[in-house]
Amino acid sequence: MLDKILDFIPTIPVDKWVSDATDWLTDTFSFLFDPVKTSLGTFMEFISEDVLLPIPAVIIILLTAVLAFFLSGKRLGLAAFTLIGLWFVYNQGLWPELISTFTLVLLASVFSIIIGVPVGILMSKSKWAQAIITPILDFMQTMPAFVYLIPAVAFFGIGMVPGVFASLIFATPPTVRFTNLGIRQVSEELVEASEAFGSTGSQRLFKVELPMARATIMAGINQTVMLSLSMVVIASMIGAPGLGREVLSALQRAEVGTGFVAGVAIVILAIIIDRFTQSVNSKKD
Amino acid sequence: MPIIEVENLSKVFGKGAQNALKLLDQGMSKEDILKETGCTVGVNRASFSVEPGEIFVIMGLSGSGKSTLVRLLNRLIEPTEGQILVDNDDLAAMDKQALRNVRRQKMSMVFQKFALFPHRTILDNAEFGLEIQGVPKEERQEKAAEALRLVGLGDYMQQKPSQLSGGMQQRVGLARALANDPEVLLMDEAFSALDPLIRKEMQDELMDLQASMKKTIIFITHDLDEALRLGDRIALMKDGSIVQIGTPEEILVSPANDYVERFVEDVDRSKVLTASHIMMRPETVNIDKHGPRVALERMREEGLSGIYVVDNNRVLKGYVTAEHASEAIKKDNRNLRDIVTNNIPRVDRDTSLNDIFDIIHDSPMPVAVVDEGKLLGIIVRGAVIAALSGNGEVNVDNA
């Protein structure tokens, strides 16, 4: 009886609106999406297949281990882990998948940072921008990641490119938030000091605010990288190659062993990337 | 001609500031305006001018608006109303570019908590102002290094601020401000964060530097002792208004109102006040004209037990007691010279209260204040005690 009141307004066709909007976007901007899809796809394939894969795995493993040694302040722990971890991935025959996944994460992160840092700066400079962008970020982070896959496929077909697109949406918010936070946290006196000496807005940003916020921004970037790595399994559902696809196919065939091995490979990659980005951060402090 | 002239400068924080200004004009108090409009009055129609080469101290307790006032001077805070004339250009009316130029070339600021850039070396910190102006690297490093040497930090150029003590950090802050070679230094509680010994040291150093640099310094402080040490003139603030402007002595000895008086109450007056502040006009007899009879008659009139003796040029000759005078009269001795005691305590006009207190304590007669032998005045014991307790009538005109 009471529900009649609620039924008074018929179902609002939000789903249809969104579909229509997506279709409209796809049709209208296909001139934009198509070249992005082709060129980015080609570029990513180039990086993984023509640049990284032809390099003998042993060289990459050794170089990464040496880099780990120096980044971690000449301690052996991370270097040893890198050496053994990457060797294990190679040993399990997952090397090409690792390279694909790495390429995906690398590009998604780079795009996230290129977009995220300026948006974060904008947010820190304007109350209005902050008021508008904050709910959008909340939306991007809480909406189940699978939902992005549908428009991603609509815009960019299947493969690596929609994977990058989906990770971009999921992984950019931390960079934006931390950049905003980092700049807002710069102490009032330092901002006053830069102003009192006659800084222009951009001098203040580049000489004081960004350097002061660097550690915070790097923490955000670290989060972004980790989140885009966590998207690789989901992205594999729309045909992104790599370790995620191994996990997915293991899931579909109920192969515990294969799934476990691919999962461990993702964890190894995650730990290495995490420690690398963190040590870049702490090294300069 | 003043280098800075501030006229009717006001700052009201909050919405509807103009409305609050009108209420201020009607004489409403800061609290009532806050209740009525929700606006906070930061600075209330401040007017003053600062001469080139002067150390102008703005003093007040926290919340008195002194930090707001100094930030209005370089427009780190936008004024609500009023003029800030720097070399006759109104800062309040300038566009951003002109304002930047003033900040770059004419005014530098030193901050309470140093506000050094922790990611830069000491040298990089000191050259910040010049870097902002686009001065070529070599030239600005040279100037910054010179400024650092001036404040005694020549050996620390490659350190980071966190490696230095508080006093050293503030020297960097000072060097950073000086490297620009500004006409005006704004120092916002620059030494307040330092411990007392270091603070004294920095004050002395600032005075030394000032003696050679002759900058115009506007110094903000809540510490009266600091204000008295540094200031050529002091402006006292309360509730956003300037309640008195004057030399340290004027502030101390003739406070404009109860507030100032309470403020200066705690000062160690014995160090600041001198003989000239508490001396009185003395009763005298003239050794060249008068005899014991006149002396005794004067003492009787004034109810004194003794009187000072001077000559025609008011040079102090000594002291005659009533006892000696009446004995001389009995012996029919007409000459004061025979009965004058020359053994009397003398101080000069700049002797501090502290020292006078020791002298007067052991003396049966008032202390004479003399300048090149001439008698200027006398100090009685009661005046010293009254002045030390802060209630004494003290006289600036004598100073």
Protein model, in words:
Chain A is mainly alpha-helical. In chain A, helix 3 crosses helix 6 (95-125) and helix 11 (201-230) packs antiparallel against helix 14 (256-283). Helices cover 84% and strands 0% of the residues of chain A. Chain A has a single domain, classed as MetI-like fold (Orthogonal Bundle), CATH 1.10.3720. The mean pLDDT of chain A is 89. Chain A has 14 helices and no strands. The relative contact order of chain A is 0.12. The two termini of chain B are 26 Å apart. Chain B has 2 domains: 50-82 and 93-268, P-loop containing nucleotide triphosphate hydrolases (Rossmann fold); 275-389, CBS-domain (Roll), CATH 3.10.580.10. Helix content of chain B is 40%, strand content 22%. With 399 residues, chain B is of the alpha/beta class. Chain B has helices at residues 17-25, 30-37, 66-73, 96-105, 122-126, 128-132, 137-150, 166-179, 196-213, 224-230, 248-253, 258-265, 269-272, 275-278, 292-302, 322-330, 353-361, 381-389; strands spanning 4-13, 40-50, 55-59, 81-86, 89-90, 107-110, 184-188, 216-221, 233-238, 241-246, 284-286, 306-310, 316-321, 346-347, 367-371, 374-379. The radius of gyration of chain B is 28 Å and the shape is elongated. Chain B has a 6-stranded mixed sheet, sandwiched between helices. In chain B, strands 2-1-4-5 form a 4-stranded antiparallel sheet, with helices on both faces. Classes of the chains: A mainly alpha (285), B alpha/beta (399). The interface between A and B is medium-sized, with 18 and 27 residues.
Q: How are the SSEs placed, and which strands pair?
A:
The complex is a heterodimer of chains A (about 280) and B (about 400).
Chain A: H1 3-7, H2 14-28, H3 30-52, H4 57-71, H5 76-91, H6 95-125, H7 127-142, H8 145-156, H9 160-184, H10 188-196, H11 201-230, H12 232-236, H13 243-252, H14 256-283
Helix pairs in contact in A: 3-6, 4-5, 5-14, 6-7, 6-9, 6-11, 6-13, 7-9, 8-9, 9-11, 10-11, 11-14, 13-14
Chain B: E1 4-13, H1 17-25, H2 30-37, E2 40-50, E3 55-59, H3 66-73, E4 81-86, E5 89-90, H4 96-105, E6 107-110, H5 122-126, H6 128-132, H7 137-150, H8 166-179, E7 184-188, H9 196-213, E8 216-221, H10 224-230, E9 233-238, E10 241-246, H11 248-253, H12 258-265, H13 269-272, H14 275-278, E11 284-286, H15 292-302, E12 306-310, E13 316-321, H16 322-330, E14 346-347, H17 353-361, E15 367-371, E16 374-379, H18 381-389
